[in-house]
Automatic annotation (TrEMBL):
GO terms under cellular component: membrane
Family: Belongs to the 'GDXG' lipolytic enzyme family.
Listed Pfam families: Abhydrolase_3
Keyword vocabulary terms for this entry: Hydrolase
KW Chaperone (keyword) present: no
Protein's name in the database: ADCL4 protein
Amino acid sequence: MAVVYTLLVLFLAVFVAGFVLLVLGAINFDFSNSEIPPGVNEPVKLRIIHIMLISRAVVGKILENIGICSQVNFVRYMQDRKTRRVDPKLLIKDLWFEKVPVRIYQPKASSASQRRGVMFFHGGGWVFGSLETHERLCRSIARESESVVVSVGYRLAPEHKYPAAYEDCLNATIHFMKNAEHYGVDPANITVCGDSAGGNLAAAVSQTLAGRSDLPSLRAQVLIYPGLQALDFNLPSYQQNRGVPPLFRERAAFYMLQYLYGNASNLEEVLEGSHIPMDIKLNYGKWVSPDHIPEKFKVRGYKPHVLLDCSTEIYETVKRLCEPNLCPLLAEDAVVQQLPESFILTCEYDVLRDDGLLYKKRLEDNSVPVTWYHLEDGFHGIINSFNTDWVSFPSGK
């Protein structure tokens, strides 16, 4: 019995040691491919956040390899382990809009007039994120703006591929617009808002609703470091910030492909730009090109990328990347011209920076009023840390 006990202890010790070494090895590998730019405020905090994210992903991968659960489900589980706080100023309810789960935040104070409404679509690369991950942010928006906020729990990839997330956000928005007065909201004063992948969804929903005569026009769209195209992953911001956590260049393309068709089998072609035929690429060059990025954003180590052609087979696989509902930057001018007043936030140290800059130009070229705010020391995801105690950043606030 003593021998068996000793062997069991030894086995557990070896397993734990191996587990720790695997995690440390993965962290070290990720560190060697990451960069914290000198312009980031409080770089140590960002490095700690990066370590936490890597550790979570590595543990999830180990659990997947030994058959306990998938890495994606483990990360989602860890993200959602948040305790919802009671807010004395808000009434918070979980509801369903057209079979889509939503969480609605309503100010308790009485209002002499109908309130503003905000449809909020969370970020997370269409793979992660939930009603829980953006709980604090939505509560803050509702309190500070005295608006009714509807957070949408859309379906996630890779289980639910494009256009599932877009359709959920669109259907939930239409439902709210048709029933706004039931929640004390002015139907003509509803804004769509989202961060990262949520910004993509907000832009797509806004384009779809533009010009519809059966619904009131949206009041505005608020796009927080949105990802808006998948034609060119070699724009200046993708090159300059390719290793800046938490969103690496490769991960941005990976998430887009997961959303598109549930895997990333053509990741290398997408990264090098050999997934779209030359004629199509040149046609969209009027909207998606480094030539449209202001020169001041190219001084930090940008090198022009040689355009590559692609095979018919690869294009047939990924050709839906040219659909505006997936990549809103590719919408026709006739649609863009009808868009509501817009707010775009970009961060200097974010691979998605140039998507926002290009969309800002498209809106301005089509006479759409745009407010643009650029965080010189910001990085992707910074708004999620605006009130997370010791890991908050001034720019997030």
